[in-house]
Amino acid sequence: EVQLVQSGAEVRKPGESLKISCKGSGYIFTSYWIGWVRQMPGKGLEWMGIIYPGDSDTRYSPSFQGQVTISADKSISTAYLQWSSLKASDTAMYYCARRDNDVLTGDKWFDPWGRGTLVTVSS
Amino acid sequence: QSVLTQPPSVSAAPGQNVTISCSGSSSNIGNNYVSWYQQLPGTAPKLLIYDNNKRPSGIPGRFSGSKSGTSATLGITGLQTGDEADYYCGSWDSTLSPVFGGGTKLTVL
User: Fold this and answer.
1) Distance (Å, rounded) from C-alpha A48 to C-alpha A63?
2) How far apart are CA B35 and CA A91, in angstroms?
3) Residuewise pLDDT in 10s, chain B (109 residues)
4) Which of B32, B45, B52 is facing A113, going by the closest CB pair?
5) Helix, strand and coil percent figures for chain B, each rounded to 5
6) Is B49 helix (H, G, I), strand (E, B) or coil?
7) Would you list which residues of chain B are within 8 Å, Cβ to Cβ, of chain A?
8) Do A32 and A99 form a contact (C-beta atoms < 8 A)?
9) Among B81, B88, B103, which residue's Cα sits nearest to residue B9?
């Protein structure tokens, strides 16, 4: 079974750093892009960025470029999302998701999704 | 402000049918495929439709998708109380970055 297992909920103070993780299993981790998606309380899905663990090629949404860092350690099939200085506005649920694709049509989609990591930033 | 436009909410009675629209542009839906995701309360999004109209294994045939031009539609027939959820459409833009709709809350009355 293809699975993405995310690290547990975190509570931090503004200005602190944080790194959350997403461990893949049940498939060849280095062959699929992993994306990160933010969902603020009561709001919709926002794409943050994506990484190809095979060569660590990383793309960021312009909205999140410079605000977060996405990385991966293929030796342990794990992708990461990190902040160097959190803000209260970073309080949200963060999902990782595997980007699957149809080689015939060129279509891409996200499946499966991790269960999410709730990040709370409060003084 | 989401790139793709969905109605904030739709509602219908159990057993009825409902459709959810997703409007985009030639920069996204018009030249790319559409996927749909279901987010049940308190859970992660789950793939419902890909390739505009294909269902992953395990997704009931009551769920269907279609695309025409720069718009897409999710259809749900024979509504059940368990279908109450937020539904999101997704596609890709001209830079091959993913874009999502703002989500539609489905209430089964």
Assistant:
1) 7
2) 27
3) 888 999 999 999 999 999 999 999 999 999 999 999 999 999 999 999 999 999 999 999 999 999 999 999 999 999 999 999 999 999 999 888 999 999 999 999 8
4) B45
5) 5, 50, 45
6) strand
7) 2, 32-33, 35, 37, 43-47, 50-52, 56, 88, 90, 92, 97-103
8) yes
9) B103
